[in-house]
Amino acid sequence: MRIPVIQKIIAILWPSFLMAGVATALFFTAFDPALILAHTAFADIPRLGAYTVGFFLFWLLTASTCLLTCYFQRPCDRAPDAS
Amino acid sequence: MNKPESTAPRPTNQGAGADQGMYAKHQKVYPREVHGVFAFWRSTGVFVLLGLYYGLPWLRWDGRQAVLLDLPERKFHIFALTFWPQDFFYLALILIVAALTLFFFTALAGRLWCGYACPQTVWTEVFLRIERLVEGDRARQMTLADAPWGARKVLIKAAKQTLWLVFAAYTGLTFVGYFTPILEVARGLLDFSLGPWETFWIAFYSLATYGNAGFLREQVCIYMCPYARFQSAMFDKNTLIISYDRARGEPRGSRRRGDDYRAKGLGHCIDCTLCVQVCPTGIDIRHGLQYQCIGCAACVDVCDQVMEKMQYPKGLIRYTTENALLGKAVRILRPRVLFYGALLLAMVAGLGYALATRLPLELDVIRDRNALFRETDGGLIENVYTLKILNMDDVPHSYRLTVQGIANLQLHMHRDRIDVPAGEVMELPVRLQVDPGDLSARSSKIAFTLRDRDDPALTVTEDARFLGPAPGTR
């Protein structure tokens, strides 16, 4: 059975988006970015900026995981007549 | 129960010149406009929910925005309540209550959420209305899609896209208005002084709305919605679903009004395909329950109109249950519904109790990390702590600090009164001193108690350790 391209794209970007959201909420509930960044070169980034960057970093991480999952779930033995 | 037919034929109401986007196979669904009882409820849902969404951020409470999830300040204001990151527990409870509510209503009445309340449905409905406003009804939309590109087509399409984008942008502005005071956001937009992060999120949310409600539409329900996939686990034979009465309708076939359909060997379905034309996900409900069906009841409304015209009884397509279709008794109160209901009640009661007894005060005790203990000139053993006092209330408080756990424990701090302004955190260094003779172990458990001077119910206690030399070594 063929999987539509849009479903493949969604399977990578969408679950990772949801989980990145959850991870961002949990992480920044526990850790205040203003305290984490206080003594680093990024001290002037406002909290909203830190949340944003944090969210996209989480998304990058989770999307990479989804991508690898999709990659590894392809059948290993390609049938001779597979197109 | 019918298994959702994943192999059901795809839309039969596709426009000939359907959109060829990045998702090549997909063909655009042009839902026909529908009127009726359920269309009225769906419109009501759209107005109430979007009214809430766009209106809430403008509501004021006590000199501030009534609902403000203030991310930059790390405080969530919801009317009279203010939540801190320490209150994450309540958010978790609220999410559990929301999930249970969804389960409860799904077991009872199927996809009520999808058809009437899901943001995807609600925003798509608005985008469809804008499309209808600019391009005309379904037939005109399909003709326009087929027409060659000319000045008129460009003008109409550009008008639609502009309206969509403006609406999406306002949606994005409102979204950010829940996290940054909306007056600041609006003012910042008007004089171009809005911060880069706020601007980014307005653009992000606007594009998400535009893409989801303008283009992806039913594909969000089919490919992206997890609920659509696992809802069948909450369904049983007594769940309210939208169903075509096959026994009454078949064999379907066209006829003239007033024809004796029985003589022709036909059922009540005149095969007008209106039920397919109005379907926002482009399915044919006559194929049985399908996972693409979002339960919007557009087909119920339109079929009832046809039945009325044909002078047949209404309800060829209707809200019903599988048991009712099979002529069996329908049970509303069944173990599944009772279980979800009881669990939901318990969680709501728990949340209510937790909120009612919530103390707007928190105390954290941090031991001085530099020294375990110190011996004073007077021969006493001293430990140093930093207390973090969070006044999570909207009014200032004055507290009294005491400590227990060791006999004759002396508490020293630099101030007489502990006054913490509304919504502030105070860091308070304190020293504890005790005679080594009163220590019975290297490490003793002690407890700090912070009590409001006026309201003794507002009391928190936090445990800590007091370290000293091993007893008898002196």
TrEMBL record, chain A:
- Give the transmembrane ranges: 12-31, 51-72
- UniProt keyword list: Membrane, Transmembrane, Transmembrane helix
Q: Do the record's keywords include Transmembrane helix?
A: yes
What is this protein identified as? Uncharacterized protein
> What is the organism of origin for this protein?
Candidatus Muproteobacteria bacterium RBG_16_64_11
Automatic annotation (TrEMBL), chain B:
Cite the source lineage: Bacteria, Pseudomonadati, Pseudomonadota, Candidatus Muproteobacteria
Q: Which GO terms describe its cellular component?
A: plasma membrane
Supply the alphabetized keyword list. Answer: 4Fe-4S, Electron transport, Iron, Iron-sulfur, Membrane, Metal-binding, Transmembrane, Transmembrane helix, Transport
- Return the NCBIfam families for the record: ccoG_rdxA_fixG
Q: Which GO terms describe its molecular function?
A: 4 iron, 4 sulfur cluster binding; metal ion binding
Name of the protein in question: Cytochrome c oxidase accessory protein CcoG
Q: Which InterPro entries match?
A: 4Fe4S_Fe-S-bd (IPR017896), 4Fe4S_Fe_S_CS (IPR017900), Cyt_c_oxidase_cbb3_FixG (IPR014116), Electron_Trans/Redox (IPR051684), FixG_C (IPR032879), Helical_ferredxn (IPR009051), Ig-like_fold (IPR013783)
| Residue ranges occupied by any 4Fe-4S ferredoxin-type domain in the UniProt entry | 260-288
- List all membrane-crossing ranges: 34-56, 88-109, 162-179, 199-216, 337-356
